[in-house]
Amino acid sequence: MDIDPAWLPPAAFRAVGGRRTLVRGAGPLVDTVRGEVAAACERFGGRMVPEEARADLVLELTGDTGDEGFACVRADGTTTVTASGGPGLLYGLFHVVRLGEDAFRGERAREEHRPAVALRMLDHWDNVAVHPVMGQVERGYAGGSLFWSDGRARGDLERVRAYGRLLAACGINAVAVNNVNVHETEARLLTDRIGEVADIAGALRPYGIRTHLSVTFAAPVVLGGLPTADPLDERVRAWWAGATARVYEAIGDFGGFVVKADSEGRPGPFAYGRTHADGANLLAAALAPHGGTVHWRAFVYDHRQDWRDRTTDRARAAYDHFVPLDGEFAANAVLQVKHGPMDFQVREPVSPLIGAMPRTRLAVEVQATQEYTGQQRHVCWLGPMWSEALRFRPDGEVSAGRLADGLVAVSNVGDDPFWTGHPLAQANLYTFGRLAWDPAADPRAVLGEWIALTRPEAPARLEAGLRAVLDGSWRTYEKYTAPLGVGFMVQPGHHYGPSVDGYEYSPWGTYHFADRDGVGVDRSAATGTGYASQYAKPWSELYESPDTCPDDLLLFFHHVPYGHVLHSGKTVIQHIYDTHFEGVEEAEEARRVWAGLTDLVDPAQHARVADRYEEQVRCAREWRDQVNSYFLRKSGVPDERGRTIH
Ligand code: GCW
């Protein structure tokens, strides 16, 4: 099967390709721009023109827009894009592609575009060797890895280059090529196997993408033969400096390291009585002379807790571990924080760490791979969720300050011909890139862009159909899964499908505490774990009381009786029943809408999505029936509307 062109089908270049274009400037990314325009012209009959000739489109390396910014203006029949850096010129070209014919109509006042966030990154949780439990890609739902296959580099660099092209077209500029859980084979990418990483970096570079590597904190021991990985040991520091210098010999523009330390059993500084700042600064020092950055993950919590112990609250962990270290991290260390305090659930509050470390560089991590949101068998467009998180202001609506230096998504891409397994999951990847470029963008406008690019000739009925099935899909998914922010209730291990008590008596810190009287986790300061007080005002006050806590998050913050009345006017138990019935109905309706688009979508793609809708509806019914039956049996409260609950 051919590889799906995703949001860069040839027809997306029709407007550019039919015109006379002048590209002015030199450098590798300018060559990429030239190559793109030349290919489009070949297809659509336009041409590249020389200096003196009249041009419809000028793409020019000049001005002062910063490396990634560009300006666009149209006057006297010519559209001009200027940029002071190669990446900016490339982004400017893709901007014109997005505008399509509009780029060549009338006049356009000069507009400057610059990314609001400097680092826009995808982390691949790809293993080099197939892991006995996690497989080739940890939490991967799109086939194998684009980069690795069964212990080796996959070698298909054309595909990697095509991937880089798609990423550049939505504004992503960094990729980490291996899993943050760094196993034995993968550890060696840092040393004797760096050449394989260099090949990938070479294929991504023409699209302005820097390559990063996940490394193990124990590398000096497992690769260097040292007796310790203590960050304050001179031998350890020298080993990292040497290893890092050799990485830069192979990859001159290498981005840096990603580290998961003291997290879910990975090695880290705690073993040596050192702090996470000591750990991060060790790697930061090795990278600094070369201009690299260490991304140090804040996903540190006790994954061996006793479910009987109600005083330990996993949600508190990142804040408790890291806030005392504010100000201690090196300038080229970035703390990478999951957007919520738990783990990529369908509904979580924004992590209180965001905004609480003003003297530390921060990157926010979201999960495009749909581990907890339907595993790319369900349609769940996450744009609105990410947008809510990115618009969150730690001190209320007061500051418009900088939230993060970086935005990172765990990639949802594999070697699948549609890239993302579920063809409609491509929308998540595109939306992530565009929101990373501009976190204030309206996600629905971004969805519109994605539709227009992906299907340039789409009749209104297709556009409306795609919007109908994608727009509300996150809320639909939320409705038929765990209610009111309580989270989890998934099958342990693989995390697909319902199991209400699946994690209730486990060591993972993921409980809902349902009993015959009520459900939810008391995280208030007055009577609970105190998590609510990790927020600044007004959030700490708002979350503290069930009276002011938003309905969506009620069970995340409070344990309430089933008869507790929500702001919506419904009781908690009736809300659970109603949303679960509605969620299934909405999934069925989406399946119906998709079925009506048969004549407008490529048959292979239509069939793939139609199959997945069968599975989504089956699974949604399973969720509905297990969750509703569970709560009926616990509470004894019947459904007001007398529907079938088993
Ligand atoms: O969500 C959990 C996943 C793990 C993952 C971990 C993490 C890479 O279940 O598979 O490990 O988060 O983010 O480190």
UniProtKB/TrEMBL annotation:
<dbReference type="GO" id="GO:0005576">
    <property type="term" value="C:extracellular region"/>
</dbReference>
<dbReference type="InterPro" id="IPR011100">
    <property type="entry name" value="Glyco_hydro_67_cat"/>
</dbReference>
<dbReference type="InterPro" id="IPR011099">
    <property type="entry name" value="Glyco_hydro_67_C"/>
</dbReference>
<dbReference type="Pfam" id="PF07477">
    <property type="entry name" value="Glyco_hydro_67C"/>
</dbReference>
<feature type="domain" description="Glycosyl hydrolase family 67 catalytic">
    <location>
        <begin position="110"/>
        <end position="417"/>
    </location>
</feature>
<dbReference type="InterPro" id="IPR017853">
    <property type="entry name" value="GH"/>
</dbReference>
<dbReference type="GO" id="GO:0046559">
    <property type="term" value="F:alpha-glucuronidase activity"/>
</dbReference>
<dbReference type="Pfam" id="PF07488">
    <property type="entry name" value="Glyco_hydro_67M"/>
</dbReference>
<feature type="domain" description="Glycosyl hydrolase family 67 C-terminal">
    <location>
        <begin position="420"/>
        <end position="643"/>
    </location>
</feature>
<protein>
    <submittedName>
        <fullName>Alpha-glucuronidase</fullName>
    </submittedName>
</protein>
<dbReference type="GO" id="GO:0045493">
    <property type="term" value="P:xylan catabolic process"/>
</dbReference>
<dbReference type="InterPro" id="IPR037054">
    <property type="entry name" value="A-glucoronidase_C_sf"/>
</dbReference>
<dbReference type="GO" id="GO:0033939">
    <property type="term" value="F:xylan alpha-1,2-glucuronosidase activity"/>
</dbReference>
